[in-house]
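Retro notes (design track)

What went well: tokenization of the new backbones is finally stable.
What didn't: we kept losing track of which sequence belonged to which structure.
Fix going forward: every design gets posted as structure first, then sequence, in one message. First example under the new rule, 243 residues:
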């Protein structure tokens, strides 16, 4: 199914609104919870926001790339949707105690300046088959810049250019799906520090959930897509069943 433009726009706006609300809940929860609970709360809300983005904003942009929001659009939509949901308010009761207006918060990922984005190493396995029969076809690795420090459970989506017509089939929870983009979740985050003699450079590696393809040929298409459009390479020291 391809969403109509109007439906896609509504889905995108609703997703932005939902993520802003979850971000607000995160900030409130961190204020009220003891420090030992903060990491669990962050991971829980990050997973919720990632899931919402995948099923709303990313789904809408997949069908209509022109709806991809920039930072200004994201903020404007978040404010617009918060005002719309609030609706008309009754006249204030002069005898009641006033309460502050709700604060609209935008996702951290949308408010960090571009110049602060840092480079991350990314590794993704391509697999074929199910259960015990599932085997690794190859691993692809590359680099990407992210506007905020990533967390385990967050999603990473690599988009094609608008002129890209290649599709490949991947296996998701709902079964086999035809995709134009590569989407996965961050499974693990590793840190490495180079020797002081070389400036002590820090390297952060993101290991992502495997992409399960529907066939070996689909694996070749995914690897080619990541190489052509995102500068990835196949791991020459690991398994390579793509030929």
């Amino acid at each position: 199914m391809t969403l109509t433009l109007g439906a896609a726009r509504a889905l995108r706006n609703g997703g932005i609104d939902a993520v802003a609300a979850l971000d607000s809940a995160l900030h409130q929860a961190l204020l009220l919870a003891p420090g030992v609970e903060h990491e669990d709360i962050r991971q829980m809300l990050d997973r919720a926001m990632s899931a919402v983005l995948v099923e709303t904003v990313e789904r809408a942009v997949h069908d209509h790339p022109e709806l991809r929001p920039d930072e200004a659009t994201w903020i404007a939509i978040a404010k617009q949707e918060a005002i719309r949901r609030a609706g008309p308010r009754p006249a204030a009761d002069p005898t009641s105690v006033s309460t502050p207006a709700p604060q609209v918060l935008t996702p951290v990922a949308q408010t960090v300046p571009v110049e602060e984005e840092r480079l991350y190493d990314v590794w993704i396995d391509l697999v074929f088959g199910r259960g015990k029969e599932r085997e690794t076809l190859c691993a692809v690795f590359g680099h990407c810049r992210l506007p905020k420090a990533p967390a385990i459970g967050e999603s990473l989506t690599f988009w094609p250019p608008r002129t890209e017509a290649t599709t490949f089939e991947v296996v998701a929870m709902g079964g086999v799906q035809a995709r134009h983009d590569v989407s996965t979740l961050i499974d693990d985050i590793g840190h490495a520090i180079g020797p002081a003699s070389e400036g002590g450079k820090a390297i952060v590696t993101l290991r992502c959930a495997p992409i399960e393809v529907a066939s070996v040929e689909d694996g070749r298409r995914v690897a080619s897509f990541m190489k052509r459009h995102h500068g990835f390479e196949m791991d020459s020291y690991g398994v390579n069943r793509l030929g």
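Added context from the reviewer: The CA atoms of residues 48 and 111 lie 19 Å apart.
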